[in-house]
Amino acid sequence: MFNYRALSALAICVASAPAFALDQGDYRFNGFGTVGVTHLGGESQSHGYGISGQTTDGWRGDQLSKLGGQFQYGLTDTIDFTVQMLAKSYSDQWRLKPEWLYLSWEATDKLKFSAGKLGTPIYMYSETLNVGFTNPWIRLPDEVYNQVQFSSYRGVSAVYTEPLPFGALTFQVAGGQSTNDKNYVMDAMYEADAKNAYFSNVTLSTNDFGSLRLSYTQANLHSNVHDTVETPFGPADLTFMHLQGNKAQFSSIGYQYDNGTWLSSNEATKLKISDAGTEPVNAFYLMGGRRFGDFLAHVTYGQMDDASGRESSWTYGLNYNVSPTVVVKGEFKRVDTSGGAPGFFARNTQQTIDDIFYSASSGQQGSPARNFDGDIISIGVDFVF
Fold first, then answer.
1. Structural domains present in the chain
2. Which of 35, 76, 224, 335 has the greatest number of beta carbons closer than 10 A?
């Protein structure tokens, strides 16, 4: 039987932002990846589901599968160079790109500065977002982790850690921008920029009572979601969302606990975009699990509320640790929407405008907004090396 607390710490060190500088001339290379498949069943199986609609009624591996490598080199005893390459599918297209590419300077034992292309520190699992081995799930809770699609930015970061008798207190502030990126909206990809981005978070880690994390992010968003659709008056090129520097604010609170047998992970978020004609999006998940030897059984409830309604889900998972670096995972997720909300089911621009005309014409034109449901099966293997 493995020591899971030690394994978790080892995995995070293997494939996350390096916490300590290497000596001059030393280097470190580590890899990580996931091989997995998903399948969507239920009444809404004809609609794709997920951050880029890749969970469908066929057995597909592009939602979960990925392969990454991280290389760190010590330029001096306090300055390191780090690059993380990641190969994965983005909206049905496989790409290999640098996820991280930065220089870091360990100014003191407590203070570290970084500059370059860095991971966005907005979620509790942001630092190991692509390293499935470190997470209890094979797919992170969609209701929370599908909200913000920017996974990296170009800028600077400062991290200060103060040791405590019972753990550590860590502060991070960062800033920069993400440009020439694309977001998946209404079943299509649209260009999106996040400028003047500011990140801050504080984490209290204890030896015996888990860790608590508070985070706040804001950025100016630029995007134009438009398409040609059929209306009762003929074809029309309509704009569904036009963001021109609108301020987005994202806040979160998270708590984790793991004593080697029992574990829990919980996170609540709020997303607000100013002057965009949209209401704030509130989301959370609650997860509890227990280990039985090399097995981990866990259950998660997730929920997201916005102006259009609610998406909620129950996820039941079972993991098996084959070795200290390989874990097999299986999950069943039941997801439902209410109030006519699409949630993260793919609803394109034509369906959206049909719903608008149905409401505006008291049912004389278009089609009514519908609720969605689905049964998602996810099976795969997470590994580090």
1. 107-384 (2.40.160.10)
2. 335
